[in-house]
Design goal:
single chain, mainly beta, nine-stranded parallel beta sheet, 1 helix, globular
């Protein structure tokens, strides 16, 4: 599966969502490429420009976004545009490559009608990637991403996260849960570590 262009952009090597709605359950996107010589390449595996995408289970593996003379983001999944809803649940993302960053996941500039959330992502970097190539990239790093229960395996130390992640309380205080929030009035949401003293948290939050 390949999206390639000599003189223009290449988006979505395996799949592109540019409107409507798509739900993928236990689907494996493997070995796909978005490649351009002169312009940008986005989403080696999956690219979302608009509409709604839910991916539950399955994985995005061994996919590549590459450009010879321009930027390339989102080896696994990339999303951009003014209006979309993307939900990723229990997804494995392994050995994806993007020459500019966001080897697993890349999010374009924040837009008021663009919504992204994820839980229980398992990311394993390509250990052959140049040190410092980001695993997760956001074009608006000051705007936190709702990503719960992230697990990074393998050579994670050389693959930083170029994005800000929401805390548990911030996630459930968002407009997605209304005025009462996920825990109701008079209660607060707190992060649940995967083990005592661990900086990593589960996809679930505790109400206190």
């Amino acid at each position: 599966c390949t999206a390639t262009s000599e003189n223009w952009a290449a988006w979505g090597g395996g799949m592109q969502v540019a409107g409507g709605a798509a739900t993928l359950t236990a689907v494996e996107v493997d070995g796909c490429v978005a490649s351009s010589r002169l312009y940008q390449a986005l989403g080696g595996g999956v690219q979302v420009e608009g509409g709604t995408l839910e991916m539950r289970g399955g994985g995005v593996r061994n996919c590549t976004a590459t450009s010879e003379l321009y930027s390339a983001y989102g080896g696994g999944v990339q999303m951009s545009g003014a209006s979309y809803v993307v939900t990723l649940l229990d997804l494995a993302m392994r050995a994806n490559v993007a020459s500019s960053g966001g080897t697993a996941l890349a999010v374009g500039a924040h837009a008021s009608a663009a919504f992204f959330s994820a839980a229980a992502l398992r990311i394993e970097p390509d250990c052959a990637a140049p040190p410092g190539t980001s695993l997760i990239h956001s074009a608006s790093p000051h705007f936190p991403l709702a990503l719960r229960g992230l697990r990074v395996e393998g050579c994670a130390a050389t693959s930083p996260i170029d994005a800000t992640l929401l805390t548990c309380a911030e996630t459930f205080a968002s407009s997605l849960y209304g005025e009462r929030g996920a825990c109701g009035l008079g209660a607060a949401c707190v992060d649940v570590p995967v083990a005592d003293g661990s900086p990593l948290t589960t996809p679930h939050c505790s109400c206190i």
